[in-house]
Amino acid sequence: MSARPLLLVVSAGDQTLRGYCLEQAAAAYDIVLLTSTEPSWEKPYIVDHAVADLHDTTELLAAGRALAARHHLAGIVTWDEWNLISTARLARALDLPANSAEVMRACRNKATARSLFAHHGVPSARSVKARTLTEAARAISSLGYPAVIKPTAFAGSIGVIRVDRPEELPAAFAFASAGASRSREDTDVLIEEYLDGPEVSVECVTMRGVTTAVAVTRKSLGPEPYFDETGHTVAAADPLLPQVAPVAAAAVKALGITHGVQHVEMRLVHGRPRLIEVNARIGGDMIGHLVRLATGIDLPQAAADIACGKTPDLAPTRHGAAGIRMLYPDVSGTLAERHINQPFAAHTPWLQQVQWIREVGDALLLPPEGDLFTSRAGFYIVTGRDTAQVTERLDTAADEITVTTRADR
């Protein structure tokens, strides 16, 4: 029998983008997994599992109770956006420490979050909920152009669009509504003031109501009117951290989050931070991995530590930088070619990873027809001493990678 604490993980997620989370948590804890499908790649990292429909509350609770009957669980965690609320419900049922389902619901619902930000004086965007095109037009007449229309409760920048003129509003509202219709929680859309400025996220760790900002992620976005994230960089010595950390911590507190890892998104408007949203889990797009490459701080293990009542070690052990760039085609179509210059890859130590997530013959669809789940062919990761060097290396590697599509007829 292992003497290590047992951690219940709800949904390990996709191996390509979330495998590092399970691997790093399993380095310190024995993992019991609650999943929607039979484990495959997860098997080396877990000691037991149960399969359940994670969106069915009754089935989820029954499977969770069955695991708790077999094991003395020390904590529960998820890094899966779609299971934040269900994990909170299960934690309450098992009497394990966690943020409440109500708090997770507020994080998931952008209208609720905006209201709480305003109530607690956290700088954010003005916003109005809209159910119809008429309500959307009325909201924009108050907020002004340009504006952003987005699903009230979804993720991944799906359905998020900028609108600059009245004639663009019907198509933009339809685009956002289509994204909102995919939500299980709230199918309304939100009309928001456009925040003009560079976008960043703050990677935070909260324990017993005290939030520590450990890193800033600088983001690259695709062409507007859409808001697809095309890349990220993290640097241990980012001078922006002291400026954005207090606002990120205030946002976490406003939502009632008392522990866990948070990915807090904001824009710098005239150099001042304005909140976009708080994601109550480790950031996607390998951001947690970038944080470790740049600083040595292990966010998955920090999340596991907090779930099990242990104070995480947040002392940086590295002082570099890292970056990721997503591989998109120039146009939608069938993936016809994907490759990297192999001699370059073999002799470039700062090129940490090149990962394909689509096969030749797969369809790649860019917005507005597609989204991040349909448009990316893969990604690559580099390291360096600072953001400038990482950006230069990302550009250098881009010249050695080919992604081409064949137009579908």
Q: Would you write up a description of this structure?
A:
By secondary structure, this protein is α+β, with helices and mostly antiparallel strands. The protein folds into 4 domains: 93 residues, 3-Layer(aba) Sandwich (Rossmann fold); 68 residues, Dna Ligase, domain 1 (2-Layer Sandwich), CATH 3.30.1490; 125 residues, ATP-grasp fold, B domain (D-amino Acid Aminotransferase, Chain A, domain 1, 2-Layer Sandwich), CATH 3.30.470; 86 residues, D-amino Acid Aminotransferase, Chain A, domain 1, CATH 3.30.470. It is 32% helix and 30% strand. Strands 13-12-9-10-11-14-18-16 form an 8-stranded antiparallel beta sheet. Strand 1, helix 1 and strand 2 form a beta-alpha-beta unit. Helix 2 packs across helix 3, helix 3 runs antiparallel to helix 4 and helix 4 packs across helix 5. The model has no long low-confidence stretch (mean pLDDT 93).
Concise synopsis of the structure shown:
The protein has 13 helices and 19 strands.
